[in-house]
Amino acid sequence: TAKETARKSTKAKSADTSSITYSKAQIKQSIVKHLHSTLGTDENKANNHAWWKATSAAMQELVLERLRTTQKTHYINDTRAVHYFSAEFLMGRLLSNNMHNFNLFETADAALKELGVELTDVLEEEPDMALGNGGLGRLAACFLDSLATMDLPAIGYGIHYEHGLFRQEIKNGAQIERPDSWRHYGNPWEICRPESIQEVPLFGYVETKYGANGRVKKEWHPGNIVKGVPWDIPIVGYGAKTVNVLRLWQSESSDYFNWDVFNSGGYVDAQRENIQAETISKVLYPNDETRAGKELRLIQQYFFCACSLKDIIRRYKRAHGDDWSRFSEQVVIQLNDTHPAIAIPELMRILVDRVELDWDTAWGICTKTFAYTNHTLLPEALERWPVRMIEKILPRHIEIIYEINHRFLSLVEKKWPGNNVIKAKLSIIEESTEKMVRMGNLSVVGSFAVNGVAEIHSKLVKENLFPEFEALWPGKLKNVTNGITPRRWLKACNPLLSELIGKKIGNDWPSDLTRLNKLSEFADNTTFQNQFMKVKQKNKEALAAEIKHLTGISVDTKAIFDIQIKRLHEYKRQHLNLIHIMALYKRLLEDPSYDMHPRVFIFGAKAAPGYTLAKDIIFAINKVADKINNDPRVNHIIKVVFLPNYRVSLAEKMIPAADVSQQISTAGKEASGTGNMKLALNGAITIGTLDGANIEIAEEVGDDNIFIFGMTVDEVTELSKKGYNPFDIYYHNNEVKAVLDWLDTDYFTPGQPGALSSLKNSMLSGGDPYMCLADYESYSEANRALNIAYRDKSRWAKMAILNTAKMGKFTSDRSIADYVERIWKLTPCTVE
Ligand code: NBY
Fold first, then answer.
1. What is the largest CA-CA distance in the chain?
2. Over the stretch 330-362, which tens digit does the pLDDT of each residue have?
3. Is 120 an annotated catalytic residue?
4. For residue 698, how many other CB atoms are within 10 A of its CB?
5. Are 521 and 541 contacting, i.e. CB atoms less than 8 angstroms apart?
6. Which end of the chain has fewer surrounding CB within 10 Å, N or C?
7. Spacing, Cα 381 to ligand 1 middle (Å)
8. Which residues, renumbered to this chain, carry the PTM N6-(pyridoxal phosphate)lysine (predicted)?
9. For 689-726, what is each residue's pLDDT tens digit?
């Protein structure tokens, strides 16, 4: 079973975690050596940044040794490997993680202490590697960790963005974006591999030639060629046996900037639209659930896919020469959403035009190589590219896409003769006023497996998004529920809880998270409850200090720490949380004896820079926070904190301190969520809707240990069908009305009436597209129940313990075991 695969491949090493042992003295010596010879400084002059670099360099020595061994082993065994194609990898910081995975954290800590340096301060020097937006990018990072931990041959392929996700500043309550320069002062983990540079053609035209045998040959004369320079980031598995790589491509202009002189008519145009080669990998597009539709974005996608495929093929040919029959036995490519879907026609182009395989053989290889993960059902997030844009940038690929579609539609014709409605729906080409290529459809047609990321989401993918595909290819659509790495999201980020767990049930849970279930036995034990909650208290005190440091706001650590951290999006409904906070505020003003336990509402969220309403919601949270935090009538009971620049390293500080986890998306909209898993794993109680993985979390922890509220997916569907009118609620619920009307005044924005009106408008005249008002009453009730539950110290402690105990399912090791079993069919390769 999947679980056994996960266990087998991780068990061996937990007994033998430190196959590479390094004594404190050796670490110390290595750090000092790097301080001297890598950084050219010494113990007296070095600041924390220099110590960070020297410590990282010392670790990297060990990492590279294991990397060499791993690569040699994989080469000798000629293993099948998974190639994880993703436009985003949200890695966060690497030093602490690498130390934990080498089981050297404590040793390094002690070594640095002897040098008069605090490891925790040193770790803070590392800039986050924020090459992703949110859940999708972080999932890729957790998967790399699990793949290496489970000794699975794997390589991540992506883009070496010069600037990751923007740094968020808050000025007068509003979000300001500042560039992120994560490698400005160098990055100790990455290795440039100029020996593996690839060239990528772009633009130009296609020439049709007729061979002697009458065969039609297509020749693409590109207008421009760019270089892809690979940077490798070693990925250390837990136990440090396998070290895989994440290979990120940086764009550069090629030496011969061969503008196509034959295309003289287009010469001036081509100049004007000259994409400077270097700009391709300059910056990560900061949208999470909307597509950018920009030419540069498509070029980014093609750029990294083309480089990666060439890289894969070079490696394959080294072992198998021109024998293509084994390609799909050796290579599986997982497409992380449709962002790398252009890899499908690119592989076809290589096989048909370059290798000169016939179409059917090439297509057979392709469709045994690719698998596709869908991460969203939101229509605005489904990628579509204008045919004309692809035609211009990738003139050969558009021909291939048409050919794929033509053959696919004849299959559809066989299945549903004469049914043009179905044909129009399934077609890869959307025949709108501007013809579009539907990347989702292309991905389904070109893959052997398609998966959603939580049970409910996969069900909706099957029933609503691609229903006919299920009829056409039964069994192709699957589920793999997301997971998170417990190494980063418990062991490293919550040392106090990890230690407590270790004392109680031993230390093998990080490689087999189901073992946490043994904690259930102690859920009713008063001593353990006290120990567990004492850890939570300490973590809250640490976060309170961080809040003070970052915002100047003092918070009561005896209050409930209620946390909502995720990208800002209407469907995630931070504004539902906000109007409820305003209602509590109002209740307290109207009735000073209103009974509620003190509560600190903490938010972290970035808004896409062009998403006006999302930015308005951030502004509103900050304005309401200002008012409440400075209102002596209530500020001993409610505080509201918006922590700027939410990112992986900040999440690592917030999650261990959470009492409550807000997971309140409109049912059917959040594909899975992964923050929900991280928070529950650290003993936070979820208040959430029956959406995404919340449903599976509820199944694991049981109804008594989670606060579920709101409409189900079916009820949401029914209400939309019936016609939802938010005014019905506005006029019937006095509290809702009063709170929304409050947004129209200048109470929260003195002198600026109307500054928060866009929120009210979106929830009323805007039709409240995510049905905040419809779920309001139920949300308010769930909050009352939560408040009562918190008052019972023992009950709450039991709930918290059971949340941690029951999260075993959500380790990314289990997700990876599911992928291996259901899709990839990989076998672990032990690296001695
Ligand atoms: O993927 C998220 C889902 O919203 C979340 O429910 C799920 O848990 C997670 C992992 O499966 N999706 C997500 O993070 N998407 C993006 O970040 C994203 C980024 C770029 C674009 C679209 C979506 N884009 O079109 O450019």
1. 93
2. 999 999 999 999 999 999 999 999 999 999 999
3. no
4. 17
5. no
6. C
7. 9
8. 678
9. 999 999 999 999 999 999 999 999 999 999 999 999 99
Question: Is residue 149 among the annotated active site residues?
Answer: no
Q: Is the pLDDT of residue 15 over 60?
A: no
The token pair that represents 345 in the structure block: 């026609």
Query: How many other CB atoms are found less than 10 A from the CB of residue 265?
Result: 8
State the ipTM, two decimals.
0.99
Whether the CB-CB separation of 780 and 678 falls below 8 Å is answered with no
Is residue 385 within 6 Å of ligand 1 at its C-beta?
no
Round to whole Å and give the CA distance between 281 and 255.
18
Tokens of 679: 């928070």
Distance CA 732, CA 811 (A): 44
The pair of three-digit structure tokens given for residue 810, joined into one six-digit string: 């959500």
Report whether 666 contacts 689 (CB < 8 A): yes
For the segment 49-55, the average pLDDT, to the nearest whole number, is 98
For 628-670, write each residue's pLDDT tens digit.
999 999 999 999 999 999 999 999 999 999 999 999 999 999 9
Q: What is the token pair recorded at 344?
A: 């499908």
CA distance 176 to 169: 5
Residue 384 CA from chain centroid, whole number: 21
Q: What domains lie within the chain, and their CATH numbers?
A: 2-482+816-824 (3.40.50.2000), 486-711+776-810 (3.40.50.2000)
Look-up of token digits 């936070």: 684
Q: 694 in ligand 1 pocket by Cβ < 6 Å? A: no
Token output for 248: 């990120």
CA dihedral 380, 386, 392, 397 (to 10 degrees): 90
DSSP state of 49: H
In whole angstroms, give the CA distance from residue 438 to residue 386. 9
Residue tagged active-site, from 567, 606, 798, 809: 567
Residue 282 a catalytic site member: no
Q: Which residues contact 25 (CB under 8 A, 6 or more apart)?
A: 111
